[in-house]
Amino acid sequence: MNRLIVIILFYFSVSYAIGYQHGIFASQSTQGVQWRGTSAIVAEHYTITVMPSYLDIELDWEFDCTGSQEPDSFKNALEIVGNLNLVQDAAVTGMLLWNGDEILKARLKPIQLAREEYEKVVDRNADTIRRPRDPVIFEYGWGEDNYDISIFPVTWQGSRRLRMRYVVAAINMNGYADIPFPTAFNRSIATYCLTAGPGVSSFEFIDNNGESEKVASPADFTAESERYRRAVMVRPVIENSEGKSIFFTSSINLEMLKGSLTHVVGRTGAQVLATAQIKEDYVILWRWNHAEYIKLYARQIVRQAESLKQFLTRLSDADKRAALVIDISGSRMIVFELGNYGDESYRQMLHFVDSLAGLDYTDDRQTFNPGFSQQQIDSIVALSMEEFEGAIRLAMSLFEEDDRTIRRIVLLTAGPRWITKLNYQFVFEADPGVEITPYFALAGALLPEGTPVPSDAVDFYWPGIPLSNIRQGASSMSVEAILTTESGDSMTVPVSASNALQRYSWNFRSSHLDRKLHTSSKLLPQIEWRIFNNGVLIKEIAEEPVVVTMPDAIQFGCALAGTERLESVDGTLPASLASTFGFVDRSYALLALEEDVMDPLDQERYRIAGVPPLTNADIFRIPDESVPPEKKADAQATVVPEKQCAHAAEPMAPVMTMQKSRLTITFRAGAGNHTPRFATIGIYTLSGRVILYMKNKEIRNNTIRLALPEAIRYSQQTLIVSITYGGMSFTRSIALR
E strands, 207-279, where? Predict the structure, then answer.
């Protein structure tokens, strides 16, 4: 129960940035009179190897044991407990505990077994002083990336030392494999040493604004340095990869998993679009409001013309065409037809805009309001709506009918803003495939880098026309990537075409091509990009990504699987990725006991630095999770829990589907179109372990829907479903996805 106190205290500070590490620690009695003291980190050092797509982190810690009052008994049998958060998606892969001059190596065990063995050593019910033995347990806490740690024993005013190893996977941030930088738990004493690992030529620190700083390897600094304050992300520099997608890959050959692991970090959708050379047509609709006063707004028109000149000049690509419609309220329209840069119509358009940009003007406009009456306003708005619809219809008529061309009407307005009421009843339906957008929303991306959109061109104002009431049939641009294995299996990944990422955030996980994959055969070193406009495929691009071979398949696998987003393209994954690769999760904890002392040679090897990887002998797997996938498949034909498959081929068998860890069972009507009201459902692993058992589950509308327990919800394995209803029994296997 004492551990709960720490967790409850910690719960109130759960909001944190993706690299923000923090924790709370205490010391307490285990026997005798209840006593609670403090525990603080008195030494903290990070040895970090920057790998191409993950950080390999060794954290040296020393905890003290103090308090405002000395315990009255069992002073050498106190316990340090703590609750902490690591970097988001970190995977803890090993731990060493110092026991005097000896070093203990933690092993990975099922959480219940680990806790039982730890408590057996601590023996909180002991009423006599015994020789304390040394355990440490590191286990999952109350939620994602939250952990509990318990160390026993510690002496009053003494300390304990340990070294933890964990890995942190990269995230695709605007096409870069950036990795969250782990913040210090005790900033006043923490020190860092970062070194570029194999395959990394150098690395950069990225701050919260996306600005980068090149860092020489190795980099040594303290948590109170300016460099620490700027480090939000670490960006490994991979030679010859700038602007390209990257496959970080490694072959895996474990008892429970074989094939290839690949972290796909792709270009952003915006980057793909920028190099796609897609045909684009722009019609700029430039509205001059209140023509009788427009001379007073010469400055605004000149400024807008200067910006338009730059904008039109940027459309010099052969696949981009432009037209211009100048709509002067109550007057005639000036129209320049659609054309390519260099065409006669385009030259005339540029010449006209250039002539406006070169006009002299006086900037002595007086602010005044003509004081329109409501009747005048209604009349102006009615005419304005009529003119708007006519101008838009004219603009749309300038486009050619081509589904493979992006068509945009760009709205720009000049003149006074005297009618502020915008909630008029006005709805306009644009033609399908035509996007209507304000000039300022588009120009920022197309003007030369560093060129601001002038303030005179930012506001859209057309009397009585709210932009929100313009209904557009054009869907936003969409991009998808297709990945294919050597055996022909493939997966399609939708990628956002937006380039709106400004700050580092996990909200954009699905907006980029960022996939952690297992494949039985290797991924082909290619990406097929497909670009859609209004649901129509308009472009296909083949890319050969950079392929980086990862040197440590196990730690690489821990980094990918620890994100809980490792998926299989062409097969099923083991029931437990934690026990496959060796890291802490909801089911497994690290436990070091006194008998886990390392041999003398290994102790000398790891005394200064390093945490050895977990071997098969260090991982105690839950029995049915140690069966390799191919053996599970062999067992599928013979392992049938509780019921035999006597009626499996009968037409009355129910239909089962699995989607997002929800099982749907659809029953077929029996004689007389009658379906029984209740069924008994059993769900089992292939080895017969019960996952879910429900007796007399009600059938509603011929259907039963079940949510699988959270413990297996994120796994990918094959389950056995046994159904009994109406005097019949059926057994089926179904794969989690």
Answer: 212-215, 219-222, 233-237, 246-253, 258-265
